[in-house]
Specification:
Layout: H1 11-22, E1 26-28, E2 34-37, E3 49-56, E4 73-79, H2 85-95, E5 101-106, H3 109-124, E6 129-134, H4 155-167, H5 172-185, E7 186-192, E8 212-215, E9 226-229, H6 233-248, E10 255-262, H7 268-284, E11 288-295, E12 305-312, H8 315-322, H9 361-377, H10 379-389, H11 394-406, H12 416-430, H13 435-448, H14 457-475, H15 485-500, H16 505-522, H17 546-560
Parallel strand pairs: 3-4, 3-5, 5-6, 10-11
Antiparallel strand pairs: 1-2, 2-4, 7-8, 7-12, 8-9, 10-12
């Protein structure tokens, strides 16, 4: 187990101390793991207090939602463990006044028992206290009755509505009524792509194969309702939304708020992809998405996965969602509009000169398609090479370049100049990062030397040498820096020497390929000076440069073309 912790027994208290240090509007009770709003008014003047909590491990829930307009206090137990009755009671006494308190509880036995008993004790002490139970897990719709479902990420939206109602001066009965109505109107379902590690356990709660996922999980690192084959994001969203829409009875014209919740180990990139399709699918059903948020709201430590929540809304409920909240983890906003795509324009490329197919047209196309096939076949190898010392995107970049070459129209192969220009422009559009500009400028520079239908051998050598020189000029690298130039430069030198010695074109290219292979192999012993590998220093030694490896792939493909 690798975690940035000290003693596993102290993680909750140390976490809460750090959170309060970071948020001046919060205070931590000295004797209990309770985070409360700082600077509350005198007891007699306090509005209805809204409290929630549960086991730790769901951060930013629950302490992250303590602030004006949301929770008055949050009570934390050990990781995935309900807090004690005494901790909940201490929180109520610390923050509530005569107007009372409402406890928002996720529907787990330990939470219901401890929060429920604390509510009874507080009421007996003169602080009227009510409990609102959230049971939003729609994955359990065919397994247990609605009242026995788990409470998961939709609870955050109930926090917001109850907190806004309390901040607006509503009575205890009114706050409870709005919170219970919201709890009855929210549905959630999640999916996990892997497990999490509870610090005290030190090992994952379950294991998944590379092609498996858990559908319908809770938030305590447990397995889902069923284990199913891994699917693309859109298919997962479709499956979850079908359950949510059916379970909640949403129809065309229904208005909802959408919460896209990460479980702790899912990057914003993937959550945005999920949100994108959720918007589209809901709109396909005629469901109006009035508000939406995406991010980590209620997690399960570092679990990879996400959940979707839908809350039915009307104008009054939207006012509660829009009301100001100063809790550090609440993002605010949430207003959305129809997707806007701004059409862009770029300087038009000069039209390619019209030309009748020259004698090399068929060969140019054949060689280019052979290169495309080789790059596609070697995508995994290039990805692996680049992952060792770079960011791992070279394989997919080269595959995108191959697809761009395949997509060129037939007239692109009329002669070498037209072909190289067409490929250069295609690659600069298809390949992001550094590879696209490098290959584009090289091909465009080479095209200038090949402006006849059937260039002489010396012209091919000049074109290759000048293309290689353009890569050095553009990127600032030189041989020995451990880049693609360590394959390109010796290849260009060998090709030019062989041509100058009167060797046939294919023989000369074979010499160039051999020199490129040797140059690429030599990069494994070089200390990188440019590119992402340079940040690794000596740790990159022993692994061949991926860019140089890609050069060998396409050069060998050209040699092997008929």
């Amino acid at each position: 187990m690798k975690k940035l912790i000290n003693n596993p027994r102290n993680v909750v208290r140390e976490m809460l101390e750090g959170l309060v240090d970071l948020n001046p509007a919060q205070v931590l009770l000295s004797s209990e793991d309770v985070v409360a709003q700082a600077g509350l008014p005198g007891i007699s003047e306090r509005p209805v207090a809204v409290l929630s909590g549960g086991g730790a491990g769901h951060e930013p829930a629950h302490a992250g939602y303590v602030g004006h307009g949301m929770l008055t206090a949050a009570i934390s137990g050990d990781v995935f463990t309900s807090p004690s009755v005494d901790a909940v009671l201490a929180a109520i006494v610390a923050v509530a006044g005569p107007k009372g308190a409402v406890l928002i509880v996720k529907n787990y036995t330990g939470d219901r028992l401890n929060f429920g008993l604390a509510a009874e004790l507080a009421t007996a002490q003169g602080i009227p206290t009510e409990v609102v139970v959230v049971a939003d897990d729609a994955a359990l719709k065919d397994i247990v009755e609605p009242a026995r479902r788990r409470g998961i990420a939709g609870t955050i939206l109930v926090h917001k509505i109850a907190g806004a109602a309390a901040a607006a001066g509503c009575s205890l009965a009114e706050v409870v009524a709005e919170a219970r109505a919201a709890a009855a109107s929210v549905v959630t379902m999640g999916v996990a792509l892997g497990s999490c590690i509870v610090p005290a356990a030190g090992k994952p709660g379950f294991s998944l194969g590379e092609d498996e996922m858990e559908l319908g999980l809770g938030i305590h690192g447990e397995q889902g309702v069923r284990r199913v084959p891994l699917e693309p994001a859109d298919a997962i969203v479709d499956s979850i939304l079908e359950t949510l829409i059916t379970d909640s009875g949403l129809t065309s014209g229904s208005r909802v708020a959408l919460l896209v919740n990460g479980l702790g180990g899912t990057p914003p990139m993937e959550l945005a992809i999920v949100a994108r399709h959720a918007f589209q699918r809901l709109r396909d059903h005629g469901i109006v998405v009035e508000r939406a948020w995406s991010g980590n709201f209620m997690t399960a430590l570092e679990m990879p996965g996400m959940s979707l929540s839908l809350l039915s809304v009307d104008d009054k409920r939207l006012q509660r969602l829009d009301a100001e909240a100063k809790a550090p983890a609440w993002p605010g906003g949430g207003r959305i509009a129809p997707r806007k795509i701004l059409e862009t324009s770029i300087v038009a490329e000069p039209a390619a000169p019209s030309a009748v197919d020259g004698p090399l047209a068929a060969a140019l196309k054949s060689v280019a398609l052979g290169v495309a096939s080789a790059l596609e076949r070697q995508e995994p190898m290039l990805t692996e090479l680049d992952s060792r010392t770079g960011d791992g995107d070279l394989g997919i970049s080269m595959a995108r370049g191959a697809a761009a070459i395949r997509g060129l129209p037939e007239e692109s192969w009329a002669n070498p100049a037209i072909a190289f220009t067409a490929m250069g422009n295609a690659l600069r559009r298809a390949i992001a990062g550094s590879s696209g500009p490098f290959y584009a400028v090289a091909l465009l520079r080479a095209a200038r030397e090949l402006d006849v239908s059937s260039p002489e051998n010396a012209a091919w050598a000049r074109a290759f040498s000048r293309a290689v020189a353009s890569v050095s000029e553009l990127g600032g690298a030189k041989p020995g820096d451990r880049t693609m130039l360590d394959a390109l430069q010796p290849a260009a030198d060998a090709f030019a020497s062989a041509i100058e010695a009167g060797q046939p074109l294919k023989t000369s290219w074979a010499a160039a390929v051999k020199a490129a292979e040797e140059g690429a192999e030599a990069t494994a012993a070089m200390r990188p000076r440019l590119g992402r590998a340079a940040y690794l220093g000596d740790r990159a030694i022993g692994f061949q440069d991926a860019g140089a490896g890609a050069v060998v792939v396409w050069m060998k493909a050209m040699l092997e073309s008929p």
